[in-house]
Amino acid sequence: MTYTPGLQVKASTLYRVQRMLPIPGQVLVQSSQSVTADQMVACSEQPGDIIPVNVANALNISPAEVPAAMKKSVGDAVVPGELLARSKGIFGYFQKDLTAPGAATVEAISQVTGQVILRGPPMPVQVPAFVSGTIVEVIPDYGVVIETPAAFIQGIFGLGGERNGVLQGVADDPQADLMPDQMHARHQGCVLFAGGRIHGAAVLKACELGVSALIGGGIDDQDLKDILGYDLGVAITGSEKIGVTVIVTEGFGEITMARRTFDLLRSCQGRLCSVNGATQIRAGVLRPEIVIPDPQAVPTESSGSRIVAEELQVGSQVRLIRDPYFGELGQVTSMPVTPQLLESGSRARVLEVKCQTGKKVIVPRANVEVLVE
User: Fold this and answer.
1) pTM, two decimal places
2) Among 5, 192, 235, 299, which is least packed by CB within 10 angstroms?
3) Long-range contacts from 355-360, C-beta under 8 angstroms, 24+ separation
């Protein structure tokens, strides 16, 4: 198949997520243990940055004289401003001192290059649970698998990384935009949603108030550029440091959130919500996620951690995922068997889609995803 499987919107599913360290470390929890979203489940230490110091040049001595000039040995720790090396001078006079540029440990001293290699303090690496749930598998030295009954929604695009907070709606009308005047000090730490477009000014206001995340149907491309300060292009998102995570469920522009998605979010208000805006643009292999755990629920659908493709056929509800129709929804009305010539000059299997706006478009089959019911 050449089409992309659709985004999931599930009121009740068994969500599973693997939480792993990038390097070996210590797992802090046990199998069958209950964890909260912000609880650390694994930790490690990554070696600090290397700090090269050219002692020979700094003291105006030969590389061979560096070991004798050192006041610290390999393995010794130094603090900023501490004496690292001193030249002999002339008859004890005109000595020159070199101090440590920062907190570090002496890792190597070379009499060939005249350089001393300092290693900065180790950097802690901590992995939080991300969602409240139960540990169902422990992967020794690396991490765990967490499982929880939850409502599960995938967005089409997002910015920012993992956050959590109480889910709150700011508008009852599913077509209402998410505006800055809808947010107040009481929303600090919350995940806010509206059915319409997320305005750029609302993102700025959310950062000022300390809102955890914003969820809406769409976002304007120019607002996106203004928020980031650059044109996103083709990239993996999720590492942006904008102060808030942003997730859109439908696409770019004045697009209203699907009614089913809006109603599901509204039914989950007041519950703790975990979100992740990380997105693999165009490739469709990484989607932003909204997870709303409900420990008391009995899941009625299969796992929400992976997408299972549905069959693409005439009548399928689809979303267009490439320009110039990115984000539009519609229904497949025709699927020609033979490949057709595209504007690019290449040939590909195509289909006809009747968009919700009423227009009909011909697009490659790879440019659509089936909407998962």
Assistant:
1) 0.74
2) 235
3) 355/320, 355/325, 355/328, 355/329, 355/330, 356/328, 356/329, 356/330, 357/328, 360/333
Q: Are strands 245-252 and 213-219 parallel, antiparallel or unpaired?
A: parallel
Task: Note whether 319 and 367 are within 8 A (CB).
Answer: no
* CA 203 – CA 209 distance, rounded (Å): 10
> What DSSP designation does 110 have?
-
* CA 29 vs CA 15, 105, 134, 247, 272: distances in Å: 19, 32, 10, 30, 21
Which amino acid appears at position 213 of this protein?
A
